[in-house]
TrEMBL record:
This is ABC transporter permease. It comes from the Bacteria. Residues 27-150 form the MacB-like periplasmic core domain. Pfam families: FtsX, MacB_PCD. InterPro entries: ABC3_permease_C, Lipoprotein-release_system, MacB_PCD. Keywords: Cell membrane, Membrane, Transmembrane, Transmembrane helix.
Length: 407
């Protein structure tokens, strides 16, 4: 066995004297364990929130979205759409026209996003994560229907069971050079029958109404123009590879975004918050590890005669430094291992049994989402190693300066 490790472990496991130094070492170990456990749990919660955001947005957003780099719309034709459909890995191509419109139901009005989609929109597996009330049906050309965000439905007091009341949609017409005093000439108007409510996320629930693309095309007078195309990738295909193929086919005039890129700002915010939480908890862990510094410093004073004897027997300064650094490592790593295990168990229990509820009745999930990633355990371990070295080096340096004459 390595001599320095053997001596350090003997110091740590010594039961002859339960003095203040031993108690302080145990407190240091407990502090490291609690800090490590907190790091594992909190980072797992952020991972769970990030995954939850992705899954909720994936219920509404497309796997890939094509938009024009310049302008909010672009012309399409059947041959061009067919060429995109035939790209390897593409399963469904959905045409989209999206713009703001004014909605009126009975005496209530609300400004929201009108999203016109082609018939294959629901084939993407929409709203699999979330709630739906009513029938997901876009109707026909004779009777177009709307799938309404729950928040919009609340603002307008929409009653799905009322067969006679329709949803009015108003959209401003392009201004003409000749003035008019008839307000009816300033906007287009048409009617939709509410068919269902959806609830995915507040951002979508409060702002979106989905309708057939033919209805929206006529109301907005878009003709053959579309604001975006939504792509569903074939099962088993790599989304990034399919995205690269579409980009190569379309050129620089179009952008192709996956679900993360469509909400890049929000996901970046979560990652930044996770980073700052990691830094903050690591700093707290470092403060807790100051006990290691004090316990080793006091031990260096207490074991001064033992150290002098080692020097008299021919030990070098390097050996003494290693003893105290490894003593600090034993304290920290014992606490870290306990903390990692406890953190793993807590996260597993939360994931399996939902120990802590969100406490939000309207949420699509009941309990706090968690997800363990091995890199979090790695970075936590590296943080403990760095803190341990910094806390142990100075006491080890002081101990190595003891002289045999101090006996």
């Amino acid at each position: 066995m390595n001599l320095s490790f053997f001596i350090a472990s003997r110091y740590f496991r010594s039961k002859k004297k339960r003095n203040f130094i031993t108690i302080l070492s145990r407190i240091s170990m407990i502090g490291v364990a609690v800090g490590t456990m907190a790091l594992v749990v909190v980072l797992s919660v952020f991972n769970g929130l990030e995954d939850l955001v992705r899954s909720l947005y994936a219920s509404f957003d497309a796997e890939l979205k094509i938009e024009s780099v310049q302008g909010k719309s672009f012309p399409v034709d059947p041959e061009w759409l067919l060429a995109i459909q035939e790209i390897e890995g593409v399963e469904i191509v959905t045409e989209v026209i999206e713009d703001n419109a004014l909605f009126k139901y009975k005496d209530y009005q609300h400004l929201a996003r009108l999203k016109g989609v082609s018939e294959n929109y629901l084939d993407h597996g929409r709203f699999e994560r979330g709630y739906v009330w009513g029938n997901l049906d876009l109707g026909s050309d004779m009777q177009p229907k709307a799938i309404v965000g729950r928040g919009v439905g609340f603002f307008l007091s929409i009653d799905l069971e009322n067969e006679f009341e329709l949803l009015s949609v108003f959209y401003p017409k392009a201004p003409r050079s000749a003035g008019t005093i008839d307000p009816n000439q300033l906007y287009s108007r048409n009617f939709l029958k509410p068919a269902a409510f959806f609830s995915v996320d507040k951002e979508f629930d409060d702002n979106y109404i989905i309708a057939p693309i033919q209805f929206v095309k006529q109301l907005l007078n878009y003709g053959n123009k579309r604001t975006s195309l939504e792509i569903k990738v074939k099962e088993g295909e790599n989304i990034q590879k399919v995205k690269s193929r579409i980009r190569a086919h379309l050129g620089d005039k179009f952008s192709v975004k996956d679900t993360d890129e469509q909400h890049e700002g929000l996901l970046r915010t979560i990652k930044i918050e996770k980073l700052f939480v990691f830094i903050t908890l690591t700093f707290i862990l470092a403060v807790a590890s100051f006990n290691i510094f004090f316990s080793l410093s006091m031990m260096a004073i207490e074991k001064k005669k033992d150290t002098a004897i080692l020097f008299a027997m021919g030990a070098r300064e390097n050996l003494v430094r290693k003893i105290y650094v490894k003593q600090g490592g034993i304290i920290a790593f014992t606490g870290a291992i306990i903390g990692l295990v406890l953190g793993f168990v807590l996260v597993w229990l939360q994931d399996s049994f939902g120990l802590i509820s969100l406490g939000i009745a309207s949420s699509v999930i009941e309990n706090y989402p968690v997800k363990m990633i091995w890199t979090d355990f790695l970075w936590t371990s590296l943080a403990v190693i760095a803190i341990t070295f910094l806390a142990s080096y100075r006491p080890a340096l002081i101990a190595s300066r003891v002289k045999p004459s101090d006996l």
